[in-house]
# Entry
Amino acid sequence: TGDSRSAPKKQRKVMTLQEKVELLDMYRRLRSAAAVARHFEINESGVRTIEKKEKEVREAVAAATPAGVRTLPYLEDSFLSCIENVAFMWVQDCYKKGISIDSNMIREKAKSLYDNLQQKEGEGSKAGEFSASKGWFDNFRKRFGLKTVKIAGQAASVDQEAGDEFPPQVPRV
# Structure
């Protein structure tokens, strides 16, 4: 019997979209999942999984995702990624204008974007429930590389006009 405490658990590696594209390009050249896996320090099955999702990865890159996006590990829910991209653009706009925002305001904005898009999609929408929870926000911050969220200021200091101009942009994203 081996001692399970001796070997540390291997950390799951989340690759950026850029890394996935590089992996796909290398796989096209070498045609060896083993060689590509060694280069990127991942399992061969990970290379094959990314290769199977090549179309989705390349579409996500081509869709001009915001430059600040670090990762999109799960590409299945384009409805949610649309909401997150618009919310991220809104956060960037607020930062550029010097508007102080906090996590609750970002969560409220994401929820309102979801509700707005849900209404436009109608009852036939494939989107599930979305609550803009604290857990969602923490993951949103990680995905978009937001280091800090300004907590200074009051909710009343937000430029309502800047917030209102974003819902019409949702269908275009």
In short: Residues 17-62 form one domain. The mean pLDDT is 76.
